[in-house]
Design a protein that fits this description.
283 residues; alpha/beta
Amino acid sequence: MDSQEDFAKMLQVLAIDRMVRELDQMASYGLKLPLEQDQRVRTLRQKLPPMGAAPEDFARAEGENHHEIVALRKLFPSWMAQLDHGPRSIDQLKRELSLCYSVLVVGNQKKQEDLWAQLAQWTTVERELFSSDSPPEVAQLITVDAAGLAYGSSAAVRDLLGRVVSALGVEPIVRQSDYLPLAHLTILEQLRGHIYELAERDNMPARRYIPVKYIFMVKNLEPQLGGWFFCNMRDDLWNTPGCKWVAFADEAGANSLLRQPPDFFDRELSLATGMVTAAHYSR
């Protein structure tokens, strides 16, 4: 058996281990699956090798329990979706932001609105640092409403970035002489310039590490426009220091935001299940 096949089987087993950890975390929020479903997951986990076991042990266990593993991987998300993960989702998002990840939040409109109502209480997020001797870095949470902007308009990306800098209290630069399909680059440079000014004010040389100053939370984003913004402009946004991003989409729209190249977002948070996954491996 080749190593790639062994690795795939190990991932199948680890998915069940992840389910048990989700069940344990849910308990602290007073959430629990029906006893039969809970025991079905835990019973299967007991049949599987512990973390750190040899690859051949994972492969053997996966082969012996293959059908049940496959069945639970299909059933578990639907079971989780029967519960209200609102408070847990908020804490999950806060944790991912404190770790300085960009996050795609996926859920229906009602769950998004419920989350936004709770997000309204936030103003900053402290970033966790590896060194306990350093004071925590604090990033401001900035809300950007993309309502009314639609994919297909050559000005849509420019206007979206205009709303981003406007949310910082900066008047976006719109030059009539700019070639419209590239007009967004003028505003993007304006955003970078604003962040470099903050770095200089904090006595940080522009070419050195600049901590995350802003977390932009973009709501009401049309999925195709979001795909163009976060996928086509991926490298431009990555090269803008001091920023992280949170976008919101329903299940259908998420596919547009994760199209090729799909790795702008570090994490995907499902509001239906309260679970966080690596975004570019989730679909």
